[in-house]
Specification:
278 residues, globular, alpha/beta, 6 helices, six-stranded mixed β-sheet, Nitrilase/N-carbamoyl-D-aminoacid amidohydrolase
């Protein structure tokens, strides 16, 4: 992998998948990545299938095994040919379960799979919640963590990844709520990490349902600074240079360190059931 121990190019590919057309969506991703000079690129959630399933049977039919499916194979080939790492979302079939997952592939092939922990809305009908927790992967120039779309809403997701050493959070998304892009500023600031949110664009209409996706994919820095943000309805690739070591300095000032100052012995209530009203 190119670059030095400090600097690397990271980015996203934003586009509008065609529902159910896996071959076309893989081809579109490959086209977008063809002219991209980056070491790490993130693709949207469910980039190869589209999002608005109308039945579990449809989700099963469009799901694939990982790493044995054609999408992971295609991504691994692209990663090998371009010498890059790719994180991309797809529906994973594992036994009787279907997961909303993301794969990490490198020039050497499949490196890891994350299964979405926090399912949104009707995803709870089609998918099983992830059972592997949040993992961090060392890709050479940096350490990355993966989360998918609605995971951002839960601060524990990014915090666990940061505590495990993630420099960059790869965030595959199909965002329909209007505030995630700005909300990720808090996730980056409170953990002092980079984040790449790869969202999709367009509208999907299936079975009377209508989802408008918000685009505005972005790369955000540890100080909640937007390093690059795409348009709301554009097809584009965004790549920026980052200094990985900026995410490893958790000092806020001479006296405060973001993680050393944590009073974890007093945080036990976080693991207790919600005690509020109905």
């Amino acid at each position: 992998m190119g670059g030095d121990a400090r600097n690397m190019k990271v980015g996203f590919a934003q586009f509008e998948p065609v529902f159910g057309d896996i071959g076309r969506n893989i081809e579109k991703a490959e086209q977008l990545l063809g002219g991209t000079e980056a070491e790490l690129v993130v693709l949207p959630e469910l980039f190869n299938t589209g999002y608005v399933f109308t039945s579990r049977e449809e989700a099963v039919a469009l799901s694939e095994s990982i790493p044995g499916g054609k999408t992971t194979a295609a991504l691994s080939r692209i990663a090998r040919e371009k010498g890059i790492h790719i994180v991309a979302g797809l529906a994973e079939r594992a036994g009787d379960n279907i997961y909303n997952s993301a794969v990490l592939v490198s020039p050497a092939g499949h490196q890891g799979t994350y299964r979405k922990t926090h399912l949104f809305n009707e995803e709870t009908i089609w998918f099983t919640s992830g059972d592997r927790g949040f993992q961090v992967y060392d890709i050479g120039n940096c350490r990355i963590g993966i989360m998918i779309c609605f995971d951002w809403f839960f601060p524990e997701s990014a915090r666990i990844l940061a505590l495990k050493g993630a420099d960059v959070i790869c965030h595959c998304a199909n965002l329909v709520l209007p505030f995630c892009q700005d909300g990720m500023a808090t996730r980056c600031l409170e953990n002092h990490v980079f984040a790449v949110t790869a969202n999709r664009t367009g509208t999907e209409k299936q079975g009377g349902r209508n989802c408008l996706f918000t685009g505005r994919s972005q790369v955000m820095g540890p100080d909640a600074d937007v390093l690059y943000r795409a348009g709301s309805d554009t097809e584009e690739v965004g790549v920026v240079d980052i200094d990985v070591l900026a995410a490893r300095d958790k000092k806020l000032n001479r006296y405060n360190d973001l993680f050393k100052d944590r009073q974890s012995g007093l945080y036990g209530d976080l693991l207790k059931p919600f005690a509020g009203g109905q």
